[in-house]
Design brief:
Length: 404
């Protein structure tokens, strides 16, 4: 069975039954294909098993689900980690550890001292104007911000947009789900080209020089500052001719972190174990630029693999499968990493005005959903798949917050 992504189960009816009559759901895009906005839900409240199961099903079927105005409920980053645990086991971010780079097996990893933590440095940029939220110091939280090193007297900087990619698809258990909570996004616009920040020229080798002109143009059509662009690899797969889908379902690819790794083979087409929806995961030859070894298609050399995957990337990046999500303060946005690609816009990594501030909190998860908490991941599974080993403690800060 290969359910068409447009044949949705009646989740809309379930939403009001499970969350109450105030809950509403609406498409994020005019095509109604990718993404939903679910309003009238308070995510600071613990979820019942049936509520958690419905949220997981919404992300399974719609790939991206955004929950606006959570700030009005006093949402904190601890609440985000609580929600994240229903989707998978949170993966700590290496950035949060003082000695992660170069550490040897058996070393005890230590978090940065308080005065060096990102949350502390965020608070120092525009004191009294922007303060990070409770729960931001959790090892599982990656603070996406341009406030570190920023302040009223510094010279702003500009950084180019990213490659299209899927986060951590190169580990044996890839990331399943990512969650954002949005506290601040830039509000100033550079009017000269209608974009918020101009994209600086790419350095040589950013993309392989043999990419087609069409693919290059699609890649370089970057989202605007304060946005994340997504490509829907489930709808893109469903739109291919049946014969091609059948061929792709047999394709295996080699995943690995470094070129020197042996890696392992996985199917290019991912089948969601709950919905049965199939998607391309992740059809980008040089995912994450130079930092991760290029993908090899089973039976093909490097150049042939690139040409094969470039054609699929070009298919997925077509406007009909793409959605540029505008992040709005107060949003919780959850996306399925098995069925999407994403990219980030050019942005200012250093700013001298709070209107340019970007402050979002991201938690990424692995493994199966859990409709009840705490999760029951075994120590063996955690040791094999969550590095460094981590479980959300029972008492994470979930103070109702009204930060600015
Ligand atoms: Fe990413």
């Amino acid at each position: 069975m290969n359910p068409d992504v447009s044949q949705l189960p009646p989740l809309e009816n379930d939403l009001k039954r499970v969350f109450g009559s105030n809950a509403t759901i609406a498409p994020l895009t005019s095509t109604e294909r990718l993404g939903r906005r679910v309003a009238g839900i308070d995510l600071t409240e613990p979820l019942t098993p049936s509520q958690a199961a419905l949220l997981v099903a919404l992300v399974d079927w719609h790939r991206i689900v955004s929950f606006p105005t959570q700030d009005t409920h006093g949402f904190s980053v601890g609440h985000l980690e609580q929600v994240a645990n229903h989707f998978g086991a949170p993966l700590p971010h290496p950035h949060n550890y003082a000695n992660y780079v170069g550490h040897a097996a058996g070393d005890l990893l230590e978090l940065h001292p308080i005065e060096e933590r990102t949350s502390t440095l965020v608070d120092q940029a525009f004191p009294g104007s922007i303060m990070s939220l409770d729960g931001a110091d959790s090892p599982a939280v990656y603070i996406v911000t341009n406030l570190v090193g920023s302040g009223p007297t510094v010279e702003p900087e500009v950084r180019g947009g990213q490659h299209w990619h899927t986060d951590i698809e190169f580990e044996p258990a890839p990331l399943s789900t990512s969650l954002f909570y949005v506290q601040r996004t830039p509000t100033t616009r550079n009017s000269s080209r209608g974009t918020w920040v101009d994209n600086p020229p790419r350095e040589p080798g950013f993309y392989h020089p043999d990419s087609s002109a069409t693919l290059s143009e699609l890649r370089e059509a970057l989202p605007l500052n304060a946005e994340t662009a997504y490509a829907d690899t489930a709808a893109a797969f469903a739109a291919l001719p049946e014969q091609e889908r059948r061929m792709l379902e047999k394709v295996m690819v080699r995943r690995r972190l470094r070129v020197t790794d042996g890696g392992w083979m996985v199917p290019l087409v991912y089948t969601n174990p709950r919905s049965g929806v199939r998607s391309l995961h992740s059809p980008v030859w040089a995912s994450r630029g130079r930092r991760v070894a290029p993908v090899e298609v089973d039976g093909m050399g490097s150049d042939e693999s690139r040409r094969f995957l470039d054609r699929l990337e070009e298919h997925c990046l077509q406007p009909e499968f793409r959605y540029d999500h505008v992040h709005t303060p107060g949003d919780v946005t959850i996306w399925n990493n098995f069925a999407t690609l994403h990219t980030a816009p050019p942005s200012k990594p250093i700013v001298n005005h709070p209107d340019d501030a970007r402050l979002l909190y991201r938690i990424s998860c692995k493994g199966d959903p859990s409709y009840e908490l705490p999760r029951s991941d075994t120590d063996k599974w955690i040791a094999a798949n969550i590095s460094p080993p981590y479980r959300t403690p029972p008492q994470i800060p979930r103070v109702k917050h009204h930060g600015r």
